[in-house]
Amino acid sequence: MKTITKIGLRGGAALQVLTLVSAGLTTFSAPAFAQASQASSDEPSSDTIVVTGSIIRRTDAETPSPVTRVTTEELDRRGINTVQDGIQKLASNNGPALTNGFTANGAFAGGASAVSLRGLSTNSTLVLFDGLRAAYYPLADDGSRNFVDLNTIQDDIVENVEVLKDGASSSYGADAIAGVVNIITKREFKGIAGRVEAGVAENGAGGSQRLSLMAGTGDLDDNGFNAYISGFYYHSEAVYNRQLDAPFNSSDQRGIGGHNGQAYGLDANGVLENNGTLTAQGDGNYNLGNLYVRPADALTNTAIAGSRYQLLAGRCLNGTPYAPTAADRAPSNNANIPNLVCNEDGVNKYGVVAPEIQRFGGSARITARVGDTSEAYLSVNFQQSTVSYTGGPPTIRGNAPTGIFYPQFSTSSNAAVRAPGSFVLSLPVYVCARSTVGPCTATNGTLNPNNPFATAGQNALIIGGLPTTITSNETRSRVYRAAAGIQGTIFDDVDYKVDFTAMHTDLRRKMDGYVYIQHLLDVIKDGSYNFVNPAANSQDVQDYLTPTNISNASSDLYQGQFTMSKAIADLPGGPLQVAIGGSIYHEAVDAPSANSDINGPTMRYFTLNAFGTKGSRTVSSAFGEIVAPVIDQVELEASGRYDHYSSGQSAFSPKFGIKLKPVRQLLLRGTYSKGFRIPSFGEANALPTTGYVSQVAANIPAAFRAQYGAACATTPASCPTYLTNYSIGQTTLASPNLNPEKSRSFTAGAVFEPIRNLSFTVDYYNIKKTGAITSPSTAPAIAAYYAGQPIPAGFNVIADAPDVNNPTATPRIAFVESTLINSDTIKSEGIDFGANFTHDFGGVKWSSNLEASMLINLSTTFPDGTTEKYVGTLGNFNLTAGSGTFKWHGYWSNTLDFGKLALTGTVNYTSGYDLSAMDQGNEYKDCGLSPGYGDCHVSKYITFDLNTNFKVTDKVNFYVNVINLFDNLPDIDPVTYGAFLYNSVQAGEGVYGRIFRAGARFKF
To answer: Cβ contacts of residue 485 below 8 Å, gap of 6+?
Structure first.
């Protein structure tokens, strides 16, 4: 594999300076980022501004709360080509963020992207558009957490993004526990501007194209109005594991000291891995691409003693044929494997790293002066985003997803807990018309052409997947948004602002290739599907077995808001200002289940989750703020907000702040606030939701493993695939009786400017969230099942189908069911650092910008007093999809501007972590999830990006970006399940290797 290279490069002097300066990041104890210092784009006056987190106009952008600004120009300099990606790269974004890459790895909210400030999850960060709320994405993260999709942002109309890294419920209400991301659009634009861009990784992966055009007319100062329109198109190609470098492109992990995860792959000694007869890929990621059958008694449907599975087609329809030898059969689980098997590499053939994304849309805005002191605006936006990806062969033998109205139907078990009619999948001796009541017999049917044992009067047990079919998923969202408002001054000294917004999202999910259970039973009964040669099936037959599933969901947001502020007295430090405001908004989500069992346990699909939710509420709010500059060196602030929900909840959220400036060069600041998060629609109203959490054999007690062989008991890595590669479905039941989560947070920081154009910031934060809404820990229920003890109250553990190689052993766990509760206390504590420097050397101007965040503590304390700590580990494993919690996250960007030529180098840094997670039963940083090979500590990940901008004229620029210039690949993580062998949150696009982008911008 590739390793992180020490930064150093021969070449021109400018490039050497950039490389060496940016590499110096590793010598700093903590890099940082600039404090907000300029006006928001929607302000009518250049001498006063409103900063995110406040409703009072001021001349000083420094507030008691830490607010930073990311401009689109800065993103361009760093080679970041979407605002969504720029927000994901915020140093304060940590833990359970939702990335586009994870969409292709089973995310509930497929097709969406969300930010998670402070590691407190996507539902504790409030995302605003121009200070107003936005509609939730119709699908919830993990089926329960509502959030705003960052992909709905039209990049070219964004002026900047302000990030308030402090509790802000006193200004904005619910969900602002960890902070606020306020996306601010352009107030005015004159002329014509556009962009053309294309990019691709050095290995040919991840091609992208971008087009935009904007035109505007009118000058607010000279003409009293401005109007502009904008349109864009963006496309990024899907990226597949087979396009990546080793080891990320193959199920075979022997090269890194692990097992060969291919179906019927050879181990390090050249014999078949000890996995026995497989029902899925050896690494558990995908179904087999071939069908195998075994003779069974026609009455009991049990396997004929002494028989073994064999390829139904007599040959490999996918993969490479392999005839096992005596040595291959020697391992404990392999004695009864088929005489001919197919070696398949599921990750290489089917693995998807990132989905295909296609976005286009348009915007229009008109802004006009109203009289001498006011300004009104109207803006409208439309955007369509389509995200698509493919999977592997669909399931035919397994358990249906957790049902709502009936027990699960199963084609792998006839256990009593399953729906009536469940059975171990087999092809019968006879076939007959599907309308025939009762079984097919010699009297009403004919011998089954798909069953090679029919002439012997035997059923054919069948395992594997459909060889010629793969699943595919497409999510298309259409977002419509309008906003209008007026702001200005009345009565000479009263500032006012009135805004209205409406936003609607239509979401269509299209899923192909998934088997409809009743139709599977139909084609087995009448023999209409050719299992022997699936390629011979007509399209009509294929469509009957795997009909297209289309479901529609929507979300809405309507809001009206006003604020008024006035200076009511003069204090020694300046005017005493008071502001009041009110807001009313209505929000709704309608996301019906895409796979309900309302019509019966077989009238649905395999695999597709049944989650869904519907709800609406109206929220009325009143809020106020006071700013008191007591003396020149001391400013006090206080704010509060009362929110009342039509669903019955209410909350008051206060906040207090102080700003001290003992000397000109130093500003000290601090805040204390309380906030809340309202239960999401998913938490209060959702249908049963099941998420799958990967398991590690080492966490299964030895006494339980002993049922699967003596070697399995002593050496977890020697266990069969049935135990080493599986996931437990954690089914969550919503509760309408949940209370809002409460939070307490405080910050303390300093801004130091020793000389002009050089500044440093440091801010400490401490957040405590109580009554956190959560599923109770499943660890006690899982432990009780493994130990053969009664399951604790409040849980239901459902066993999986038995292992075909160990049919008498206690089965592994299929599902654990529990109900959401207000229970835990979550703490997040850390320090943000920032630095900015600019100096003009005459022939060259050097600008330096650093941002970093150190997470000191992220932990959960349970009612019994026990605490789980997550920093520097893969915890919270369930919440983060095994991507963990990083202690350090940051970047350092340096620009050398020569006038016609500008070079920007950016070092990106994410710290490493231990392969353990306390929520998986490990001790803190004990390497408890390590599979037993490789290092149990995943290394830090550092990349270097280089952007070159050529100013052809004052109106035309060309630029070339090299992302991950030194082609560094992330360290291996064999545990995370958000991606294959690497951490998708830590690595991002870095796993593609070196990426090139080139484009042109013009403005006339």
So the answer is: 376, 377, 497, 498, 499, 500
